[in-house]
Every structure is written in structure tokens, then in C-alpha cells.
Specification:
Elements lengths: L11 H22 L15 H11 L12 H8 L17 H5 L3 H6 L7 H30 L7 H4 L2 H7 L5 H16 L3 H14 L4 H13 L3 H26 L14 H10 L3 H24 L2 H6 L2 H7 L2 H4 L2 H7 L1 H32 L2
Length: about 375
Amino acid sequence: MTRTLRTASPSPLVVATVASLLTVVLVSVGLNRAGWDPTVFVGFGEDAVAITEYATERLGAIELRPVQGHDGKFFFVQANDPWVTQPTDNAAILDHPIYRSQRMLYPVLAGGFGLFGPTAVTWGLLVVNILAMGLGTFATARLSRRLGGSTWWGLAFVANFGLLYTLTNDDAGILAAALAMWAVAMVYEERLGMAIALLAGAALTREVMVVCAAGLAVWLWSQHRRKAALVALVVPGVAIAGWIVYLRYQLGPDQADPRAVGWPFVGLARAVPEWLADPVVALAGVAVLVILALFTVRWAQTRTALGWMFIGFVPLAALLTDKVWREIFDYTRAVAPLLTAAMLLIFVEARAKRERSAIAGRSDAKVSP
């Protein structure tokens, strides 16, 4: 894959530094308001009694949010025992132990591979996300330059409102998206082995990221690279399956089904009437739907690796339940990786492809009799 055109823009490192500084400022504002207590980002909930008691026993006073809080509270528990060696003391208090614990890479890193104590874990959850925001921006800027666009498009990563919501709730979505963007960049730099390894990491961070691996496999198959396509599909799948087998050995089966998908478009249809009561939720929802539609159109026009690796989030969005579609935080983080990829596909790669076609057309015209 070759670069299409060069634009005057800073190095990806400069863009990543800008993104990192912006992220640090945002985090600092939140910490300052909470007296520099990192538990404000964890999302402990007033009604999540078991986890709240677990946290107060280990941390003392903590910041609480209304009702159940957010998913950061689950990652806090996991990061205190990321290898699930003491499940009765830790994972047992999770609502769905296997479902939660299969998202292992973020708590492993935030917990210092099992070496950090509870207080260090609260900071680790935050620091990993700050670093991931910078690394994801670097990868996005690097990919944009490879596609022929300005490296400033790397800021599409840090400006992703799904990831910004994730930042405020110590969730794993930023790390998963960063690994996915790195994987795409590696594909375009023809470092396929590295790309597949990164996709395995992304899938172990957030299981839905297997759609990126599946998309890459389909694209490779279309390029008649059949062996590589199988490897791209099998390696992330084996990584997830192996970890789940280990979890079942440690924890046994989950007692309930926590899936957030259902029949196509039913969840969206049920959520739309509730959007009408909140203009902000409605506006954000419409924006996400428009981006999904534009991405689908550009994917159909270009059929490039970038489009294929994220197109799976479109049918996934159609399957989301009304519980997900009701809240900005839930539906934006559900498709957050696509929101960044869409900016590159729509405004950089699709444009570059049109420019190449125009140049080829002019060249053909010159040689025509």
C-alpha cells in the first residue's frame, strides 16, 4: 500500500503529544473538582452495594455516583486480581464474572500485572487510559499520513465522544480502540503479523473487537491471501477462547446471560421515542446514525482494509437493545472505534481514492489517440 499524496503537517508524535496534553487537562479538571481523588473516575454506584463495600474496605472513602454507577467499578475489582487467582475474594462479587473477566488486558495493565495494591489500581486505570489516548492518536495520525491525509486527522481519536465518555468512567474502550487503530496502521504498512497480534490484544480488551479481525480476514481473502485471512481470524479467536476456558476453570459458568443484543433495529425503534424527551440524546443519536450510514456508503465505494475492519460495527449497532440505545454513554462507546475510523474513511481515504482515479483518468486521456 503506497502513500497517495503528501500534505504539510506535523509528525504523528507531535499530534499525539497535543492529544495527550488535552487528555491530561480534562482529567486534571475532574480530579481537581474531586479533591484529586481518582475514584471519581471509577464509577462506583450508590446501589452497587457489594462492590461499594469491597472498595471502601480497601480504599476508605470513595466517590459515589447515582444508582449503579459505571463499568469502571468492575475493572477495579478485576485489576485487584487480574489473573483470577483468588476468585472468591474478588471476581465472585461481579454481576457476571466470566463475562466481565473476559475483558482482561485493561485490568492486567492497570493492575501492574497483579503487582499493584488497590490505591495504585485506581490510578492505574486512569493512567492506562491517558496513555492509550495518546497511543491511539499517534496510530490514527500515522495511518492518516499513510493514506495521504494530514496527521492532524489523528485528533479524530481524542475527539471521539464515545471515547471521551469512556475516559470519565475508567472503561476499556480507549485501549481497545487504540489497539485496533494500531492494527489498521500496521496493515497499511504491510506488517501483518503485528496487526494480527494487536487485534488479539484488542479482542482480549473488549470482545466485540473480533469484528475487526473478521473484517481484516474478509479483506485479505478478497486479495487472494487465503492463508493470511485464516490466521487473522484464528489468532484472536484462539486468544479469546483460551482465556475463557481458563476463566471457566477458575470460576465455573455464569449464572445469567448479560448480552446487550437482540433482534435487528428493535432496540433502536424502542429507544427513539425516549430520545424525543431529551434533545441532546436525540441529536447525538442522529449524529451516530448519520456517521454509520456515511461509513457504509464509503465502505461500499472503496472496499479497502480500513472499511472492512470496521464495517462489522454497523450490523452490530442494528442489534443493540433499547437499553443501550437509550443512553449516549452506551451507544457511543458501543460503536466508538468506528466513529474514529469513519473520519479517515470518509474524509481521507475516499478522497484520496477519487484523486487517484482523477489522475489516472487524465493520464489515460493524454495517451489516447
